[in-house]
C-alpha cells in the first residue's frame, strides 16, 4: 500500500480505522463445481430489516473474489474467541482454509460453523464496487443464533467482550 493516497496519509488512515472495534466474521460459499471458498471480514453490517439485507465487504484482490461474485448464496459465520486461529487462516492468501476447521454443511452444501455466535445464510442480492473492495449485499433467508459471545478485531488483535483495552 502506498504511504499517501490522494494526499491522505495511508498509515494514519489505517491506524484510525483500527481504533474502531469491529466484529469478526468468516464468510463462506460453495461454487457450482462444489469447491469451498471463504474469507475473514470485519466489514459486516445489517443493511435493512424489510427486506432482511446484510452487507459484507470483500477485497477485489482476494483469491476467492471470483467465486463470491459468481455465487448465488453465501454464509456469514459470526466468530467467537475459539475461532481466532481459523479467522487468521481465512484472512491469509494461499492457505488451505478448510483443512482444519470444524465446518458442517447446510442443505445446499455451504460451510457453516456450528459453534458460531450466529450464522446468517444469504442469497447474493447485489455486488456493488467500492474502491478496492466489493460490497456483497445478501438477502437473508435463514439465521441461527448460537450461545457463544462474538469476538472483536481492535488495533490489529482480537478483543474479547468484557476485556479491558490498554
TrEMBL record:
- Coiled coil ranges: none
In alphabetical order, the GO MF annotations are: FMN binding; riboflavin reductase (NADPH) activity
A GO BP entry is: pyrimidine nucleobase catabolic process
**Gene3D superfamilies recorded:** Electron Transport, Fmn-binding Protein, Chain A
Residue ranges of the Flavin reductase like domain?
17-160
> Which keywords describe this protein according to UniProt?
Oxidoreductase
Is Oxidoreductase one of the keywords UniProt gives this record? yes
Protein's UniProt keywords contain Oxidoreductase: yes
Kindly provide the name given to this protein in its UniProt entry: Flavin reductase family protein
Name its species. Streptomyces malaysiensis subsp. samsunensis
Q: Give the lineage.
A: Bacteria, Bacillati, Actinomycetota, Actinomycetes, Kitasatosporales
